[in-house]
Design goal:
By secondary structure, this protein is α+β, with helices and mostly antiparallel strands. The protein is built from 4 helices and 4 strands, in the order αααββββα.
Length: 191
């Protein structure tokens, strides 16, 4: 009897010493609660995770844009591509990192406010690759306006100290390019 109790006590004490499994961090696809501050954080952390290990073929402003931007912004981007015949248009770099080239980036994401339909966030991005010029390793601040689209967060607008509004950049660029094309089309067709 004492032997059974001792064995049971030993098994219970060993079980108590085993590390408890740590649940995995939520991923973009595993967060099913709908738009919340927590899912906005996951969305932006997922976006910037593509920059953490160095350059890759990830391209949020072009080939991956529908995963990150809302339909009105996608329409502005498509119009920019159409007006510029797929040549460089409004963007001369990656608006997510405010860069053309990068090494390894870290991002500190803060959700400033969130409702079920929109969120505002601040992201401080820092280049950590020592081979990148020191002036390009200074922290950069981004402000995001996110909107819920079919239960998922998407970027509605993005601002930096040097770019007051990505949306307005596209709107103004599209307007200017359309006027330029109209003027040159009229000139080319006149006798």
């Amino acid at each position: 009897m004492h032997l059974r109790l001792a064995a049971a006590a030993l098994l219970l004490s060993l079980a108590a010493c085993q590390p408890k499994p740590v649940p995995p961090a939520p991923s973009l696809s595993s967060v099913a609660a709908g738009p919340t501050a927590a899912t906005a954080l996951v969305f932006l952390n997922n976006l910037y995770s593509h920059y953490a290990t160095g350059p890759s073929d990830f391209d949020p402003a072009f080939k991956n844009q529908s995963d990150y931007f809302d339909p009105p912004m996608l329409a502005l981007m498509a119009e920019d591509a159409r007006l510029n015949k797929d040549e460089a248009g409004a963007l001369d770099g990656d608006p997510i990192c405010d860069c053309q080239d990068y090494g390894k980036l870290t991002a500190a994401v803060t959700i400033d406010s969130a409702t079920a339909t929109e969120a505002k966030a601040t992201v401080i991005v820092t280049e950590t690759d020592p081979s990148v010029r020191a002036e390009d390793r200074k922290p950069r601040t981004f402000t995001y306006d996110l909107v819920a689209v079919d239960g998922q967060w998407r970027i509605h607008d993005l601002t930096t100290p040097d770019m007051p509004s990505l949306r307005q950049l596209f709107i103004q660029s599209n307007k200017t390019q359309a006027a330029y094309l109209a003027a040159h089309s009229a000139t080319a067709s006149s006798p």
